[in-house]
Amino acid sequence: MNIGVLALQGDFEAHSRALQQLGASSFEVRTRADFERADGLIMPGGESTTMLRILAEEGLVDALVAFTKSGKPILATCAGVILLAHKTISPEQLSFDALDIDVERNAYGRQADSSIRRITPESEGAEKLGPEPLECVFIRAPIIRRVGEQVTTLMRDGELPILVEQGAILGATFHPELTADSRVHRLFLDKVEASL
User: Fold this and answer.
1) Interatomic CA distance for residues 187 and 169, integer angstroms
2) Residue 78 annotated as catalytic
3) Of 15, 104, 165, 177, which is the active-site residue?
């Protein structure tokens, strides 16, 4: 498996370490050729406007859009979810409409309002992740305000979806790479293996 981790900005190294703990190697995605050789892609958290700027400056927008349309698996976390959303608000910004959700940026508050909570998967999520609660790290996290008909909610924080799935794409508003719980990354790797 060739697992690419988008390495333009954000904590992409933590995702690489999480994959390594599962026995999977990865490489940093920084060029068009990197997108083309990836069997699966992780889009990390970070700052979505900065990521958009770098994607544009490096001429990588078309390569990312092509990857989202390829049917290959994607794990998007925090800012990655913002980039893949159908619509982004507070404020509005460009997103690539690969995941049929509407997202409100930084809706959990400032960096100081970050939190760690243990959250039990929904019934659909328990089938794929197991019934035990996951430790979820929220850092200036977005809120998913709307979920489309083709999107399955695997986890909720109260009424708010925090882990969603649409086809080969997984979107988490939290940071699974910052905990010892590897189930989200394992689910992503399962999708990549099934796609080969």
Assistant:
1) 11
2) yes
3) 177
